[in-house]
UniProtKB/TrEMBL annotation:
Organism (species): Frankia nepalensis
Family: Belongs to the FMN-dependent alpha-hydroxy acid dehydrogenase family.
Protein name: Alpha-hydroxy-acid oxidizing protein
Residues covered by region (Disordered): 203-222
Keywords on record: Flavoprotein, FMN, Oxidoreductase
GO terms assigned for molecular function: FMN binding; oxidoreductase activity, acting on CH-OH group of donors
Residues bound to FMN: 78-80, 107, 128, 130, 156, 250, 272, 305-309, 328-329
Active site annotation, chain numbering: H274
């Protein structure tokens, strides 16, 4: 971990530690992975137009979201497969987030219950909600989220069925009993395999609190068959009626739904294509961000995820109007490579890069990041690059 100076270096360490099928499960996207690649390519297309004469001797990365001060505008996205990277999974991530004072949005399909994670973390936790198939259970789940001290709920809306993850199909990752190919790959990574098996044994230990909602990969398989994760406008209304805290929807990819979300009392959105893991062919998130920011017209907090790998990416998203960004795979690489310390390292790398980028851009505060600092983005009403 010492020699790793950026997210890509940490990704390489993760790749070395994990069996191929597991790395692919974290890394891969849906279908031809067009949207997965677009998320990255679109960030690279956007250019900076710095204002170098600004006074940036002192910089402040902090920001306020839903009235709460965050040390920086980077959150950890919900990922339901942390257990594949390391058995400490969400517990390690939540502890690293607390040490770094960043928000961790916990997934419904983690390896640990929401209470277990809350008990292990002194940090700021938000909850990502996949609705239980039986809507009668929503009330109970929302009460548990509130009782455990989670501060916001994000309902994920882009997963009525699982995306077409061809890497997983080819690797036979979900076969039960496990496919010999997967077992062989596991055996070739003994450190990972020992930890994985220990985690499975621990999970079955009698006396561990029950997990009424989540079962990671098992639940994923159910959802393919039953479409039970389909979320409708009525469901958003239902959650709104049960939850007093900040409510977000995660997975918005168009601006024309903002008015209705505001009418329903939603407080924020996460512009997200699930890291290219759901509908292949959708645009890069950074390309639809300006449209959604304009449509939200300050009535909604607009967060973004998908392809953020550098502090420069964070600055681009904020300049285009994002309130904050989330990262998914980067901290999973950290988790795989170094557990809790690995996650912390990823967060600190991104913090350092954002700080440096802001200085070089002439932005002393997050509020100083505005559209004049970038060009080449898809801003509604602006001439396209070919027309300029
Ligand atoms: C392995 C993996 C598991 C994920 N699980 C969830 C999940 O349980 N719920 C959810 O809303 N999003 C999930 N996501 C999507 C992330 O929250 C986030 O939208 C995405 O990872 C952002 O893109 P990035 O990985 O390029 O940063 C998952 C992503 C990955 C890579």
């Amino acid at each position: 971990m010492q020699g790793a100076i950026n997210v890509n270096d940490i990704r390489k360490l993760a790749r070395r530690r994990l069996p191929r099928a597991v790395f692919d499960a974290l890394e891969g996207g849906a279908g031809d992975e067009v949207s997965l690649r677009r998320n990255r390519a679109a960030f690279d297309r956007i250019e900076f137009r710095p204002r170098p004469l600004a006074d940036v001797a002192k910089r402040d990365l902090s920001t306020t979201v839903f009235g709460e001060q965050l040390s920086m505008p980077i959150l950890l996205a919900p990922t339901g497969a942390g257990r594949l990277a390391r058995s400490s999974a969400e517990i390690a991530v939540a502890r690293a987030a607390a040490r770094a004072d960043v928000v961790y949005m916990q997934s419904t399909v983690g390896a640990f219950t929401l209470e277990e994670i809350a008990a292990c973390s002194t940090g700021k936790l938000w909850y990502q909600l996949y609705l239980p198939p039986d809507r009668q259970e929503v009330k109970n789940l929302v009460s548990r989220i509130a009782a455990a001290g989670y501060r916001a709920i994000a309902v994920t809306i882009d997963t009525p069925v699982l995306g077409n993850r061809e890497r997983d199909a080819r690797n036979r990752l979900l076969a039960r009993p496990p496919h010999p190919k997967v077992l062989l790959q596991g055996a070739s990574r003994p450190v990972w395999a020992t930890d994985f098996v220990r985690g499975r044994v621990e999970a079955r230990r009698p006396g561990r609190p029950g997990r009424p909602v989540q079962q990671s990969l098992d639940q994923t398989r159910t959802s393919i068959k039953t479409s039970s994760d389909c979320v409708t406008w009525e469901d958003i209304e239902l959650v709104r009626s049960l939850w007093d805290g900040p409510l977000l929807v995660k997975g918005l990819m168009r601006g024309d739904e903002c008015d209705r979300l505001v009418e329903l009392g939603v407080d924020g959105v996460v512009v997200s294509n699930h890291g290219g893991r759901q509908l292949d062919g959708v645009p890069a998130t950074i390309d639809v961000l300006p449209e959604i920011v304009d449509a939200a017209a300050r009535r909604l907090a607009v967060l973004l995820d998908g392809g953020v790998r550098r502090g420069t990416d964070v600055a681009k998203a904020l300049a285009l109007g994002a309130t904050a960004v989330l990262v998914g795979r980067p901290y999973l690489y950290g988790l795989a490579a170094g557990g809790e310390d690995g996650v912390l390292r990823v967060i600190e790398v991104l913090r350092e890069e954002l700080d440096r980028t802001m200085a070089l851009l002439g932005a002393a505060t997050v509020a100083d990041l505005d559209r004049s600092l970038v060009s080449g983005a898809r801003v509604p009403g602006a001439p396209s690059p070919s027309e300029r």
